[in-house]
Amino acid sequence: MLKLTKRDLAVALTAAAITGGVFARTPAAPGIIGASTYAWDAMQPHKTSVGETRQVLKGPTATLEELEVHITTLNAGQSSHPPHHHPNEELVLIDKGNVETLSNGNWVRLGPGSVILNGSESWHSLRNVGDGPTQYFVVNWRTPATDAIAAKNPPETAPAHP
Prior knowledge:
- By secondary structure, this protein is α+β, with helices and mostly antiparallel strands.
- The protein has a domain at 42-152: Jelly Rolls, CATH 2.60.120.10.
- The protein contains two helices and nine strands.
- The chain has helices spanning 6-25, 144-152, and strands at residues 46-48, 51-59, 66-74, 89-96, 99-103, 106-110, 115-118, 125-128, 134-142.
- The protein has a six-stranded antiparallel beta sheet with strand order 1-2-3-9-4-7.
- A hairpin with a 2-residue loop joins strand 1 (46-48) and strand 2.
- The longest helix is centred in the first third of the chain and has 20 residues, at 6-25.
- It is globular and about 40 Å long.
- The protein starts with 5 loop residues before the first helix and ends in a 10-residue tail after the last helix.
């Protein structure tokens, strides 16, 4: 029969505490994003040269390779970026302000409550055409088809803004 002394017990508990501390500090592998909530006050704003952005979430879900959501506040007269395209599809939900967006080769003006779907490989851009800041939510997703589309479509030159 094994008999433990107080010293043996102290050494074992110390070793367990150190091991537990190492594992507690080891970052977990990225997990699947499931049912969750995101409070506005918990999302830290990051200033940009044209306004600010708040990252909501980014990672795999049960059905998507990646789901990414962010919120952009764009200053008056500013563009989020020059016209570009990418293989993933993207929803833009206009919350506040007035924008002009490149969609299907046309520049379209939209206001609060409007929704933009930027299709796979479609040229798009967005600029604030109002007097104050505009705010919009962006939802991007990636599936196995996204990488296949990317491999077939080399970069091109962006269309000019009229």
